[in-house]
Fold this protein.
Amino acid sequence: MKAFFEGIQSLFVDFLFLPLDFLRELELTSWFTANLLNWIFMIICAYFMVYWIKQLKLHKKNNDEFQDTTAHSFLK
């Protein structure tokens, strides 16, 4: 049983966490490069937030929204 858990430890420490170890060492030389993936995700999220807000404004302008407050009994 002990060998099983040591095998799981070896899998994660020796193989699956290697990219994270690389990023940890890279952070000492260039913080922006180490966080490049985070910057990419933030840009993607910001883009889709702007897209979503534009779509909401478009639907509001066309009166396409259906806001029925009786959909839930607790809103009556």
Observations:
- Helices lie at 2-16, 18-27, 31-34, 36-61.
- The chain has a mean pLDDT of 88.
